Amino acid sequence: MNYKGLETLYWVARLSSFNKAAIQLNTTQSSVSQRIAALEQELSVKLLERRSRTIHLTDQGKVAFKYAEKSIELNEQFLAEISNHSLTESTIRLGVAETIVHTWLVDFIERVYRTYPHITVDIIVNITPVLKESLKNGELDMVFMLDHTCDFDCIQRPLCHFEQSFLISAKHGQRFLQRSALSLREIVRSTIISYPKNTYPYLDIKQKLNQLRLLEPKTITSYSLATLIKMTEEGMGIGVLPHLSVLKELREKRLYILSTDITLSPYRFLCVYTVGRDDRVKKDLADIAVDVANHAMKKLNQQFEAEDFYLI
């Protein structure tokens, strides 16, 4: 039986799209249709049917899908046993949240290229909801994103977490000097600079406001971490950001951390990838990401704890 046909059936069924399967397999939609037709002819059964513009597996198709899944897994295991990392060639489409770009992504890429010199990593930087949807649709192979519920088959590996702090610019922090720990009520008298209101970081603040029956403050929001950092540094408000992503600004005393009695929920990041293509490589890259993240976060936290970055 043709392995290409089984592999094609797997991706068409998994992505519910001939076009998305073609993108995943780096071929044309016409070629995907031909492979499915050839497989159905070889087996003398109908494997797929269209209902309301969606693609569904027939009963025979469901059986074939299980064997296709096993065949892909066995193929990856076989390649893992006989192949040499230094000779492996592949392109991995990696989606990354911006917080990781600002901290340890470069270390990860350098380590990947030492291990797999012939692999190409195409990097897409975006917010978690977009990264998750792109992974689900087969447009990305792997993502580093905030902890998020996934409604599709995938492998999830914990990576790291970033604590959040309230940050103020050096030139606009004078009014907070020699103050005891600020309450949330005092904090929200100022403009808050944060991610948009539909994101996890802002929803965490909103929940705490609701618990204290406080009104939402004036906010300036952006999906770009670099933009949030710049606006905070320019004194446009109090930034709610992961402090390890601004160590340079803290060291140079362009930003300070405000002492508060508020504990914000940390950003928890995962490495998430789908199975069915380059599984061995993706597993190895996930292992590398976990190891790099552990070392990087330990180093960053040591640097943070070695100095006092609080406004006093």
Structure explained in plain terms:
- The protein has 312 residues and is of the alpha/beta class.
- It has three domains: 3-82, Arc Repressor Mutant, subunit A (Orthogonal Bundle), CATH 1.10.10.10; 87-162 and 268-303, 3-Layer(aba) Sandwich (D-Maltodextrin-Binding Protein, domain 2), CATH 3.40.190; 164-265, Periplasmic binding protein-like II (D-Maltodextrin-Binding Protein, domain 2), CATH 3.40.190.
- Helices cover 45% and strands 20% of the residues.
- It contains twelve helices and twelve strands.
- Helix 1 crosses helix 3 (29-43) and helix 1 (3-15) packs across helix 4.
- It starts with a helix and ends in a 7-residue tail after the last helix.
- The mean pLDDT is 88.
CATH architecture of the largest domain: 3-Layer(aba) Sandwich
Strand content: 15-25%
Note the run of SSEs as H and E: HHHEEHEHHEHEEEHEHEHEHEEH
Task: Give the helix proportion (percent range).
Answer: 40-55%
Oligomer: single chain
Shape: elongated
The CATH superfamily of the largest domain appears as Periplasmic binding protein-like II
The secondary-structure class comes to alpha/beta
Tell me the Rg in angstroms. Answer: 24 Å
Work out the number of β strands.
12
- Largest sheet features: 5 strands, mixed
CATH top level of the largest domain is: Alpha Beta
What name does the CATH topology of the largest domain carry? D-Maltodextrin-Binding Protein, domain 2
Task: Report mean pLDDT, rounded to a whole number.
Answer: 88
Distance between the termini: 72 Å
**Uncertain parts:** none
Number of helices: 12
**Major sheet: arrangement of strands:** 4-3-5-12-6
What number of structural domains do the residues give?
A: 3
Pfam family, one: HTH_1
Domain HTH lysR-type: 1-58
Organism: Acinetobacter boissieri
Keywords: DNA-binding, Transcription, Transcription regulation
